[in-house]
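Lecture notes, continued. The same structure-token format from the folding unit now serves as the input rather than the output. Read the line below as a description of shape only.
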């Protein structure tokens, strides 16, 4: 059954919305000096940015394997950008080569997810 573009990308939109919600929360908590909540949100941002493809897949409720793989390929780009941004912030706003290498962690996670979907028939 053919699904619309919105239905195929529902998980991507939901996972990205979740990331940006936590991103705004971390700014609010830092400005209010609520450091415990800030640290909890930063830990959440770490997991959301690195496992963005997995979260998008879970929230998408897709049933077709080709649609799942398309979603993972699309959301991997966002996940890599979010991860590089996270590591850039952790590295006190300076780019080093390890920031880009650590930003590739979501690529490995996405490859494992795609491999699982392909072999789980």
């Amino acid at each position: 059954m053919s699904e619309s573009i919105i239905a195929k990308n529902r998980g991507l939109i939901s996972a990205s919305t979740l990331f940006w919600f936590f991103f705004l929360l971390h700014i609010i908590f830092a400005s209010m000096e609520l450091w415990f909540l800030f640290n909890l949100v930063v830990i959440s941002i770490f997991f959301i940015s690195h496992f963005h493809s997995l979260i998008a897949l879970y929230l998408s409720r897709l049933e077709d394997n080709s649609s799942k793989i398309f979603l993972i390929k699309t959301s991997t780009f966002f996940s890599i950008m979010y991860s590089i941004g996270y590591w850039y912030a952790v590295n006190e706003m300076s780019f080093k080569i390890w920031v880009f290498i650590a930003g590739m962690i979501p690529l490995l996670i996405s490859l494992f997810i795609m491999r699982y979907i392909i072999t789980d028939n």
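Point for the exam: The chain has a mean pLDDT of 91.
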